[in-house]
Amino acid sequence: MRKLTVEELKRKSVEEFRESNKIPLVAVLENIRSAYNVGSVFRTADAFLLESIYICGYTARPPHKEISKTALGAEESVNWKYFTEACQAIEDLRRQGFKVFAAEQTLNSLPLHTLENNASEKIAVVLGNEVTGVEQSTIQLCDGTIEIPQLGMKHSLNISVAAGIIFWELAKQHLKEDDG
Amino acid sequence: MRKLTVEELKRKSVEEFRESNKIPLVAVLENIRSAYNVGSVFRTADAFLLESIYICGYTARPPHKEISKTALGAEESVNWKYFTEACQAIEDLRRQGFKVFAAEQTLNSLPLHTLENNASEKIAVVLGNEVTGVEQSTIQLCDGTIEIPQLGMKHSLNISVAAGIIFWELAKQHLKEDDG
Q1: 0.90 exceeded by the pTM?
Q2: What values do phi and psi take at A38, rounded to 5?
Q3: Is this prediction's ipTM beyond 0.85?
Q4: Distance between CA atoms of residues A10 and B147, nearest Å
Q5: Residue B167: closest CA among chain A residues belongs to which residue?
Q6: Do A1 and B175 touch (CB under 8 A)?
Q7: Partners of residue A96 on adjacent β-strands
Q8: Which residues of chain B have a CB within 8 Å of the CB of A179?
Q9: Which residues of B touch A4 (CB under 8 A)?
Q10: What is the pLDDT of residues A136-151, one digit of tens each?
């Protein structure tokens, strides 16, 4: 069980990353307060080859010192676009054929582990503010809401952890395809 | 798609959490540099009802201001134990019948999405230092290594994101059981 060296990990260079076929998944960040969380989502987006990050509202965007501190360079490779309002981001995604979900606990949200997505679907997930979550007006524009089942006493997960779990679950379908 | 109120989320109180049956999963933290990462793992452990967190080496432990900042109170509910060395933690887990895996990229690590665990298995996962990963000497004591497949240019995920993804994947089996 020897640890792999950096060379053995066979990661992509910035150029290889930019030119590679992405997984048709987009993270939409709405009014995220912490730039560290934004950086962490960039790092996750790099790992799972997300097509893009759509940054909305007052969410910090690169170049930004705190984003760099947690993105560790992923902000140089991952595609991103900025929109003043999440509704514009959603409109843009719809035009490209994306289904848009909000990561939120609503009356009829879909538990993440029951989600049956097929790998050809283009999916975007909106992640909202650390305290107030996704705006109700933004939720209304979505095709549905996805919820990570939580069994403890806290109301939510850290947003970069939630993004990691959701995009892992969605990207995994593509890994399985590649295996087969 | 109205957002649920805090009451509607029906989360547990600290007392209910302490008395509830946990999922037989343990997070082992070895020489984690950032207390914020430790706090975030506490929050995740709360969400997925982990049995315990085993804190090893120079990893920060509660009470700690930075842990509280990201654990948001989960450090009051989630069980934890401290060990000066990870090998002692592993010994303790073995005695209780746990299988112990390291989250690490090795020559023969198991990709997370191919992991077939049955819900009755007791599983512990060792998460290592942010830069150097799990110590090679600790890896040698484990039953195996688990790897989150990563497709981009970075070598690893943030440790609290990696913990979230791994424990989501393991806890999910139990959610499915409860559904059935």
Answers
A1: yes
A2: -60, -45
A3: yes
A4: 14
A5: A165
A6: no
A7: none
A8: 114
A9: 105-107
A10: 999 999 999 999 999 9
